[in-house]
């Protein structure tokens, strides 16, 4: 597998997972709020911040009826037209530069999801280090080919894609020039449930497509994301907001700063805990051997007395012989006096 670098940061199971804070439309059309989100993401320890680059006109048609009206009663955006939703959620293109500059000042990687070729062209002017293809666009082969042709790494979310569709997507990206590919297991419901996350797909996807695999997570909380690390997720993307109470198109399933801080910390702990297959005693465990159980004289004994269950016990600490030898001692006589608390040893017989 080719080594992956995203914005100068190495990505793979040998490294702590890359944590992406997704701003989306949680700035609520305020540049000041957007910059505050950058600051909060950096303070929480996120490694990268993602924008979405589109306009409503590049996303859909300006119609409010039929297919362009959101009538699903379970949708967070019920009652809106697609066009008005994207008008509300989009990040003005002139904001990208100051947001990216703030990211770099704060030491986190700025990048974006382009939803159209024009968005790729614009982002190229801003020297974006890599691109993300959203789940809803993973069937837009012309867009994927256009982004891949830049030669920059691609992250592609896999929500809704069948295996056949995903194979087509990966093939198109690679044939168009993508040599560094990350797929993100994704469940495209908002919010998603843990039961629908199916993160056991992660190692299978990694083997099948011979690429790095991560998680684009729309569940509430951080449990699913942390669990994904144990299955090899090397990139984790979560929507991020200053406060869910502020509202916004994605606020309901976004992490707040303290939750993001916990995700960064706990995902790295999970990665550290994976380690390697090991049955050896660790160096730090060696100092704890003294707290194991072992055989001790439990009553004062004189020379010639017989060892029995009344005067030999299996107790802590571990300075005596191992408990497995007790049957070899019971019924034998001691060769010398021994006080209670004497560790059992072979020369006492």
From TrEMBL:
UniProt-listed InterPro entries: AFP_Neu5c_C_sf, Aldolase_TIM, PseI-like, PseI/NeuA/B-like_N, Pseudaminic_synth_PseI, SAF, SAF_AFP_Neu5Ac, SAF_PseI/NeuA/NeuB
Designated name of the protein: Pseudaminic acid synthase
Annotated NCBIfam families: PseI
Family annotation (CDD domains): SAF_NeuB_like (cd11615)
Domain of life of the source: Bacteria
Native source organism of the sequence: Paenibacillus eucommiae
UniProt domain AFP-like: residue ranges: 294-349
């Amino acid at each position: 597998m080719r080594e992956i670098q995203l914005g100068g940061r190495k990505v793979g199971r040998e490294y702590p997972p890359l944590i992406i804070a997704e701003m989306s439309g949680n700035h609520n059309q305020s540049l000041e709020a957007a910059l505050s989100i950058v600051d909060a993401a950096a303070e929480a320890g996120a490694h990268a911040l993602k924008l979405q680059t589109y306009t409503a006109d590049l996303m859909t048609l300006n119609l409010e009826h039929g297919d362009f009206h959101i009538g699903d009663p379970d949708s967070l955006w019920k009652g809106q037209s697609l066009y008005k939703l994207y008008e509300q959620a989009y990040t003005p293109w002139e904001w990208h530069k100051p947001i990216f500059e703030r990211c770099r000042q704060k030491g986190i990687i700025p990048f974006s999801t382009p939803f159209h070729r024009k968005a790729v062209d614009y982002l190229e002017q801003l020297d974006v280090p890599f691109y993300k293809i959203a789940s809803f666009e993973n069937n837009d082969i012309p867009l994927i080919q256009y982004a891949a042709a830049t030669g920059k790494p691609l992250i592609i979310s896999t929500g809704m894609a069948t295996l056949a569709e995903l194979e087509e997507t990966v093939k198109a990206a690679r044939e168009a020039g993508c040599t560094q590919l990350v797929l993100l297991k994704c469940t495209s419901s908002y919010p998603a449930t843990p039961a629908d996350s199916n993160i056991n797909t992660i190692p299978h996807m990694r083997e099948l497509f011979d690429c790095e695999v991560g998680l684009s997570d729309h569940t509430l909380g951080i449990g699913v994301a942390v669990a994904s690390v144990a299955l090899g997720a090397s990139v984790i993307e979560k929507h991020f907001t200053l406060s869910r109470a502020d509202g916004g198109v994605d606020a309901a399933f976004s992490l707040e700063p303290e939750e993001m801080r916990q995700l960064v910390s706990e995902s790295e702990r999970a990665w550290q805990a994976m380690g390697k297959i090991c049955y050896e005693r660790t160096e730090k465990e060696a100092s704890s051997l003294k707290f194991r159980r072992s055989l001790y004289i439990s009553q004062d004994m004189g020379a010639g007395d017989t060892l029995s269950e009344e005067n030999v016990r299996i107790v802590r600490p571990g300075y005596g012989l191992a408990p497995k030898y007790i049957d070899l001692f019971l019924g034998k006589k001691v060769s010398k006096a021994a006080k209670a608390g004497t560790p059992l040893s072979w020369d006492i017989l």
